[in-house]
Amino acid sequence: MFKQKETFQEIIIMRGSGEGEESSDSKRSQLGKARTKSIHPPIESQWLLHPPEENKPSSLLPKPGVKSMLNYPRKIRNSLKKLGRGKSLRIVLEGVHDPKYEQLVDSLREQLFAEGHLMERQTDYHSLLRFLRMSDFDLSKAKDKFVQCLRWREEYGVDEILKEFKFEEYAEVKKCYPHGYHGVDRNGRPIYIERIGMVDLNALLQATTVDRFVRYHVSELEKTLNIRFPACSIAAKRHIASITSILDVKGVGMSTFSKTARSLFMEIQKIDSNYYPETLNRLFIVNAGNGFRMLWKALGTFLDARTLAKIHVLGYNYLSNLLEVIDQSNLPSFLGGDCTCSDYGGCLFSDKGPWQNPEILEMLQSASIMEETYDSETDSDVASEEAMGTSQNEDCGDGGNTEAQKIHALEVALMDTNKEIQALKAALDNMKAVLERLEQHIKALRV
Fold first, then answer.
1. What is the mean pLDDT of each run of 10 residues along the chain (447 residues)?
2. Which InterPro entries does the entry link to (predicted)?
3. Among 316, 317, 313, which Cα is nearest to 300's?
């Protein structure tokens, strides 16, 4: 009944006073004429979702995270490669890159490499495309913004947050700040929900601090990029790279937006916009009364034009709008849907979604192990080449080089290589165990 077809065109909106009270383009055009900015279609549309099966140029295929899946036994390859109607797991996770955008991404990567900013995990196609989109595909601006992001990640300690940060006050914070991920929309994107009208800021600040809450927010953003999006991609059998969000603002007015609340909002907005760009597909603000509409005039000035174009501010008769993009089974009962998640103490406590599916998580773990295996092989090759290069350079130096120095250089190279081999063996053993469990799951599904 609510089958949705996504059709997009590039549009131009005006950035003015920030009055984003209506969702129609005609209302948006009344925002003012201070600044224009291109609004791009959803990021998933910049992957070729339905590539032809025959005569596909190899240059259009995503660069795999391992040297080649063909190097693995057929049983392992089939377990990882086949998904749904024969789609490749790597193609689903990576998307089939559009040659036009891949060329721009490669140009940006080359500039970053030339300036010494090559970071393996952050310079993948997906990350760089986001920064290109936020910069309207201006290479110079995208490079500057990306370098700023790398600097922030290092200074803020994002990697350390992922490894060490523990948000013990999670359950208590959920009670005074109801929020969470819950299911997927009709296109397979994660749904994120906040009930702003029920936030108890005093209780929140007793349960945690602004700094710890922001760190928790960053850890959730990283989980979305690294786990939720890939899991949703596998479940939807297409690349997923953005979220659909719902903000319930029932009871929110000017008095709600205190100095502390403004500070928290601005800090989170800054992080989301500058360091995790283009992750929002659309935002529905529901139960917007007169009090919130007055507040929205102030809030809208903090948002960039591209974000404003994705926001739909709705009153109390919002259900039909939500059902156009979200199935009723994935909509919590407090928003007019059928779900209660009674086993989890409520929908916003459940973290319901494909990222909780054990089989999908095993597939992601398998893919991660294969990535680590490839990295180990690559590091081993580089270490050996560097050691051999050092030995050769010493041979050519003035004053000669003793046989003992040559032997020492070779011993260092062999030791480094042996360490990498041991790490590779451990990774392969882990991969074997995971794949055996995955094979058992596949056999069970076939019975």
1. 43 33 41 50 60 38 38 39 53 80 91 78 82 93 94 94 93 94 96 93 93 96 95 92 95 76 87 93 93 81 79 94 96 94 88 94 78 53 49 47 60 68 74 76 69
2. CRAL-TRIO_dom, CRAL-TRIO_dom_sf, CRAL/TRIO_N_dom, CRAL/TRIO_N_dom_sf, PI/PC_transfer
3. 313
Q: How far apart are CA 172 and CA 45, in angstroms?
A: 39
Nearest to 64 by CA among 310, 281, 374: 374
Predicted local confidence at residue 29, as pLDDT:
41
Give CA 192 to chain center in angstroms: 13
Paired tokens of 175: 């009670």
- Calculate the alpha carbon distances from 362 to 25, 66, 220 in Å: 44, 17, 20
In order, the DSSP letters of 215-230 are HHHHHHHHHIIIIIHH
b (16+ CB within 10 A) / e for 167-193: bebeeebbebbbbbbbbbbbbbbbbbb
Burial of 122 (C-beta count, 10 Å sphere; 0-12/13-18/19+): middle
Helices (H), 44-157: 74-81, 89-94, 99-114, 125-134, 139-156
